[in-house]
Design brief:
5-stranded antiparallel beta sheet, 2 domains, Nuclear Transport Factor 2, Chain: A, alpha+beta
Protein backbone atom coordinates (compact mmCIF):
# COMPACT_ATOMS: atom_id res chain seq x y z
CA UNK A 1 0.00 0.00 0.00
CA UNK A 2 3.04 2.29 0.29
CA UNK A 3 2.85 2.82 -3.50
CA UNK A 4 -0.20 4.97 -2.83
CA UNK A 5 1.73 7.28 -0.52
CA UNK A 6 4.97 7.44 -2.52
CA UNK A 7 3.80 8.26 -6.03
CA UNK A 8 0.55 9.81 -7.30
CA UNK A 9 1.01 8.52 -10.85
CA UNK A 10 -0.68 5.08 -10.42
CA UNK A 11 -3.83 6.78 -9.13
CA UNK A 12 -3.77 9.25 -12.01
CA UNK A 13 -3.21 6.51 -14.62
CA UNK A 14 -6.04 4.32 -13.30
CA UNK A 15 -8.42 7.27 -13.03
CA UNK A 16 -7.69 8.44 -16.59
CA UNK A 17 -8.17 4.93 -18.02
CA UNK A 18 -11.41 4.46 -16.03
CA UNK A 19 -12.72 7.83 -17.21
CA UNK A 20 -11.98 7.00 -20.87
CA UNK A 21 -13.73 3.63 -20.49
CA UNK A 22 -16.73 5.34 -18.94
CA UNK A 23 -16.79 7.95 -21.72
CA UNK A 24 -16.81 5.09 -24.22
CA UNK A 25 -19.64 3.41 -22.30
CA UNK A 26 -21.59 6.70 -22.28
CA UNK A 27 -21.11 7.23 -26.02
CA UNK A 28 -22.07 3.64 -26.90
CA UNK A 29 -25.09 3.30 -24.62
CA UNK A 30 -26.23 6.85 -24.04
CA UNK A 31 -27.01 5.89 -20.43
CA UNK A 32 -26.70 8.74 -17.94
CA UNK A 33 -25.52 6.36 -15.21
CA UNK A 34 -22.06 6.62 -16.78
CA UNK A 35 -21.94 10.29 -15.77
CA UNK A 36 -22.47 9.37 -12.13
CA UNK A 37 -19.79 6.70 -12.40
CA UNK A 38 -17.43 9.27 -13.93
CA UNK A 39 -18.09 11.66 -11.05
CA UNK A 40 -17.48 8.80 -8.61
CA UNK A 41 -14.14 7.91 -10.22
CA UNK A 42 -13.08 11.57 -10.21
CA UNK A 43 -14.07 11.98 -6.55
CA UNK A 44 -12.29 8.78 -5.50
CA UNK A 45 -9.15 9.81 -7.41
CA UNK A 46 -9.29 13.23 -5.76
CA UNK A 47 -9.52 11.69 -2.28
CA UNK A 48 -6.66 9.29 -3.00
CA UNK A 49 -4.48 12.13 -4.33
CA UNK A 50 -5.26 14.21 -1.24
CA UNK A 51 -4.27 11.29 1.01
CA UNK A 52 -1.05 10.81 -1.00
CA UNK A 53 -0.24 14.49 -0.57
CA UNK A 54 -0.99 14.59 3.17
CA UNK A 55 0.79 11.39 4.20
CA UNK A 56 4.54 11.91 4.46
CA UNK A 57 6.45 8.62 4.43
CA UNK A 58 9.92 7.89 5.79
CA UNK A 59 11.23 7.69 2.23
CA UNK A 60 9.92 11.18 1.46
CA UNK A 61 11.45 12.58 4.67
CA UNK A 62 14.81 10.99 3.79
CA UNK A 63 14.67 12.36 0.24
CA UNK A 64 14.01 15.84 1.64
CA UNK A 65 16.79 15.42 4.22
CA UNK A 66 19.28 14.57 1.48
CA UNK A 67 18.08 17.49 -0.67
CA UNK A 68 18.46 19.86 2.29
CA UNK A 69 21.93 18.48 3.06
CA UNK A 70 22.92 19.05 -0.59
CA UNK A 71 21.73 22.66 -0.31
CA UNK A 72 23.76 23.10 2.88
CA UNK A 73 26.86 21.79 1.08
CA UNK A 74 26.11 24.14 -1.80
CA UNK A 75 26.01 27.05 0.69
CA UNK A 76 29.50 26.02 1.90
CA UNK A 77 28.32 26.05 5.54
CA UNK A 78 29.96 23.23 7.51
CA UNK A 79 27.80 23.79 10.60
CA UNK A 80 24.60 23.63 8.53
CA UNK A 81 25.77 20.38 6.93
CA UNK A 82 26.63 18.85 10.32
CA UNK A 83 22.99 19.27 11.43
CA UNK A 84 22.23 16.36 9.09
CA UNK A 85 25.01 14.12 10.45
CA UNK A 86 24.78 12.00 13.60
CA UNK A 87 27.16 13.00 16.39
CA UNK A 88 28.82 9.56 16.38
CA UNK A 89 29.72 9.78 12.68
CA UNK A 90 32.99 11.59 13.28
CA UNK A 91 34.44 10.43 9.94
CA UNK A 92 31.76 12.23 7.92
CA UNK A 93 31.87 15.28 10.21
CA UNK A 94 35.67 15.52 9.85
CA UNK A 95 35.44 15.03 6.10
CA UNK A 96 32.90 17.88 5.80
CA UNK A 97 35.23 20.17 7.75
CA UNK A 98 38.17 19.28 5.51
CA UNK A 99 36.23 19.49 2.22
CA UNK A 100 34.64 22.85 3.04
CA UNK A 101 38.00 24.21 4.22
CA UNK A 102 39.57 23.30 0.87
CA UNK A 103 36.78 23.70 -1.69
CA UNK A 104 33.97 26.06 -2.68
CA UNK A 105 30.78 24.50 -4.02
CA UNK A 106 28.78 26.40 -6.61
CA UNK A 107 26.18 23.71 -7.25
CA UNK A 108 25.29 20.29 -5.80
CA UNK A 109 22.62 18.12 -7.45
CA UNK A 110 21.19 14.72 -6.55
CA UNK A 111 20.32 12.87 -9.74
CA UNK A 112 17.11 10.98 -10.49
CA UNK A 113 18.37 7.51 -9.57
CA UNK A 114 17.87 8.13 -5.83
CA UNK A 115 16.76 4.90 -4.16
CA UNK A 116 15.91 4.66 -0.46
CA UNK A 117 15.45 1.42 1.50
CA UNK A 118 14.09 1.71 5.05
CA UNK A 119 14.36 -1.08 7.64
CA UNK A 120 11.82 -1.65 10.39
CA UNK A 121 14.48 -2.09 13.07
CA UNK A 122 14.37 -0.05 16.27
CA UNK A 123 15.52 2.65 15.74
CA UNK A 124 14.68 2.66 12.06
CA UNK A 125 17.61 2.79 9.69
CA UNK A 126 17.85 3.44 5.98
CA UNK A 127 20.23 3.19 3.07
CA UNK A 128 20.11 5.67 0.19
CA UNK A 129 22.01 5.33 -3.07
CA UNK A 130 22.23 7.93 -5.79
CA UNK A 131 24.44 9.77 -8.22
CA UNK A 132 25.33 13.35 -7.36
CA UNK A 133 27.13 16.03 -9.30
CA UNK A 134 28.98 18.88 -7.61
CA UNK A 135 30.38 21.91 -9.38
CA UNK A 136 32.99 24.12 -7.77
CA UNK A 137 36.64 24.76 -7.22
CA UNK A 138 39.37 25.09 -4.65
CA UNK A 139 39.65 28.05 -2.30
CA UNK A 140 43.06 28.97 -3.70
CA UNK A 141 41.59 29.70 -7.14
CA UNK A 142 43.67 27.04 -8.87
CA UNK A 143 40.57 25.63 -10.53
CA UNK A 144 36.94 26.72 -10.72
CA UNK A 145 33.84 25.31 -12.36
CA UNK A 146 35.12 21.77 -11.94
CA UNK A 147 32.33 19.17 -12.36
CA UNK A 148 32.70 16.21 -9.99
CA UNK A 149 30.23 13.32 -10.36
CA UNK A 150 30.03 10.58 -7.71
CA UNK A 151 27.90 7.58 -6.82
CA UNK A 152 26.93 8.06 -3.17
CA UNK A 153 25.84 5.53 -0.57
CA UNK A 154 24.42 7.07 2.61
CA UNK A 155 23.31 5.25 5.75
CA UNK A 156 20.83 7.00 8.01
CA UNK A 157 19.16 6.47 11.39
CA UNK A 158 15.86 7.86 12.56
CA UNK A 159 16.22 10.20 15.52
CA UNK A 160 12.73 11.27 16.61
CA UNK A 161 11.12 12.83 13.54
CA UNK A 162 14.48 13.48 11.86
CA UNK A 163 16.80 11.23 9.90
CA UNK A 164 20.55 11.62 10.51
CA UNK A 165 23.44 10.44 8.36
CA UNK A 166 25.50 7.78 10.14
CA UNK A 167 27.89 6.81 7.34
CA UNK A 168 28.61 7.56 3.71
CA UNK A 169 30.69 6.38 0.77
CA UNK A 170 31.53 8.22 -2.44
CA UNK A 171 32.33 5.94 -5.38
CA UNK A 172 32.92 6.01 -9.11
CA UNK A 173 29.80 7.54 -10.71
CA UNK A 174 29.61 4.78 -13.31
CA UNK A 175 28.52 2.38 -10.55
CA UNK A 176 25.18 4.18 -10.22
CA UNK A 177 24.76 4.43 -13.97
CA UNK A 178 25.46 0.70 -14.37
CA UNK A 179 22.87 -0.13 -11.70
CA UNK A 180 20.30 1.98 -13.52
CA UNK A 181 21.14 0.32 -16.85
CA UNK A 182 20.85 -3.14 -15.27
CA UNK A 183 17.46 -2.29 -13.74
CA UNK A 184 16.28 -0.98 -17.12
CA UNK A 185 17.45 -4.17 -18.84
CA UNK A 186 15.64 -6.31 -16.24
CA UNK A 187 12.47 -4.28 -16.70
CA UNK A 188 12.38 -2.86 -13.14
Amino acid sequence: MSWLFEDPMPVIYVAVVAEFLLIGFLVLTGRGVALFAMLGVAALAGVLLLVEHLVVTDVEVIEQTLADAAKAIESNDAEAVKKFIAEEDSVTRDRIDWVLDEYIFERVRIKSNLKVEVTDSEPKTARATFNAVATGGDKHGTFTGQVVPRFIIVKLRQNGERWLITDHEARDPREGLMKKAKQYAEGK
